[in-house]
User: Fold these one by one.
Assistant:
Number 1:
Amino acid sequence: MHFLTYLTKLIGKVGVVFQQPWAWLAGFGLFVADAATRGRLTIYLVVIACIVDLVCGICVAIKRKSFAKSELMRLTVEKLLIYGSVMLVFMCIDGYIAAQTAFEMSLSSALVGIVITLAETWSILASLLILFPKNPLLKLLQNRLTAEIASKLGVEKEEVAAILNASRKKPQPRAKNGQFAKKK
């Protein structure tokens, strides 16, 4: 995937993520935590989020009974390289600002790391909804995650919504002969 294509996709995902109130709360919490760790937390969170997204992607491939391609690992390495280079640019900007002024907090790299972490969290939540469609917490986000799931699976949004709704319906009990049991 090309660098600009990936950044465009990331920016689109960030726009969707920050429509959610929890994203603003989580972003503020991560910013405070990053300030407490002097800018190191976001780097670790980005790497951990990418690895968790890879593991969730493999689990989704296993659940769908499709072959987990080496493309997943290649895309994860590409993501880490792109995210790392973007964060490095912003760390250099922070270093320049710190050298010119007395302001030593890595503000811009922290914000970029938090945005990347939240975008990856969105992708992880979509994978978890595929894996656990009956989870009540994930049900709350189903309407928002449908587009993300559709892009992951390469299908239309309507098909994803139909599959998720069908997987939540309770099957009717069956009699021993294979017919549906009568309600009493």
Number 2:
Amino acid sequence: MFYHGSVQKNLLELHPREGKLFASPDFRVAAVFLAGAQKACCLPINGRIFAFIGDDREDLLTRDCGGSIYVLTREKFRPVPGGNPSLEWFTTEKISPMMSFAYESSIAAMIAHGVQLYFVSAPTVDEIQAADKAGSLIGSDFLISVLARPSENKILRTLLLKHGSRLKVKVETPSHVAPQI
């Protein structure tokens, strides 16, 4: 199975944007892309997913309207060239999802699925991505300095509770797909 996160809910068909539709074999990675952040990247470190969001925390909280994680078959996807196959695959074809999980809050979904969130500047996201592609990120002083700060999860949990946001999930199966029993 592959997973695609989107701010758009209730889609019966997913279409490539700019020629590609991205998905991940890791549900947590798809959760990061529910937020519709201007810039974001993920790193798997010791079995955990660290997400670096290049967006203002308060702005993202204000406009967080959730999204859906779509469950897709693997058959039409291939690894992103130069990418990490544990994180990202793509297809150039439109895909009908097998089912989806709709979330009221993207941030609550990320936290619930164990994603460690860091809000950084957009240039820092670019720097993380470039260093990761060059193979010089893991163990670097740069990454150590970014991860030296505590993740935003505790602050975000408090803010979400204060605003009355809870994790509500609605599982949807498109009518053209027979439920698997």
Number 3:
Amino acid sequence: MGRGRGVNSTHRDHFASPSGNHGKGDQGRFAEPESGTATAQVSPSADASAQDGLSSGPLSYGRLDTWYQSFSRRMSYVAAAALGVITAVCFVDVVGAKFFGWPVPSQFELVANLNLVAVFLAAFYVQMDRGSVSIELLQNHLPRPVKLAVRIFGSLLGIAVCFFAAYRGWCYLVDFIQTRKSASGVWHFPIWPFQAVLVLGFFCLGLAFLFTVGRDVHDYRGRRGRFNPRPVHVASDREGEPEAQHRTDSGASVDESKQETGES
């Protein structure tokens, strides 16, 4: 009976101890993990962030957004290939003209039209990947609703400009196909395929701005991304107490548990 009474009082003092420290017998089960080891304990600030819908990982906006971003990435590979062809043509033209007297035929027209492919098939991927330069010094000091309104207004302007340019480009594309317009120079290649790339690029860039509006609204409602408020540090209950007081409380709890175990 005395032994059982001592064990029960030891556990009662352990759970009643304000410092949460344990005796030597409980170190195997209740010892705190060392630095560098994983633990499943969630801090109050992290738990509050999870409840508010905040996340530091990659943001997801649904299947349609994911598919369009993947499509834009594939189109950027085509733009990169066009840039490689431009580099090769310029290199061969310079070397051939300077050393052998053999310039590339229609080099200027070919490079000028390939620039349409290199630029307009990569522009909407940059918008989807948030790689464009953004100046947000003023936005960071605005309230969340005003910040959302400013961003939506800017995206709507981008949508209007891109769709209007795509429409006018379509008019030129139809004219180029009907008149069979070709490049001037030695090699008279057709121009309409490059004009079609320009129309596609402007149209896809307008869709990218439309996806940006959806992302901003989604982030605003979920309080994440650019609309994520600054995390508030949650102080612990014993943060302000001096270190000596911590040592006194822990030492007193251990001595009391040892004393009661010895009496039993």
Number 4:
Amino acid sequence: MHADWIQSIERQLAEVPPGCLLESPVSQVPRLHRPGPHWAGRGRVETFSLFPGLTLSHLCFQSETFSHRHAALTPAWKSPTAAGGGWAGR
């Protein structure tokens, strides 16, 4: 069982060079980049649009460590639908 999931990850990352991350954002061309100068692993992030405003990200990494953080798209205080702010109640 242990070897099965390791082989599955290796197959998914076969086209990604060591030290690189392949990102496939929704409706955009995939891009390959290096997340950091000392990162020796490899990874892939695929993003799928499920419904308007709802996405699913599939992450696959082969590394000792990796830190990943999504940037906020719209802060809640700027959102026109946030309760008590923006356009709400107007």
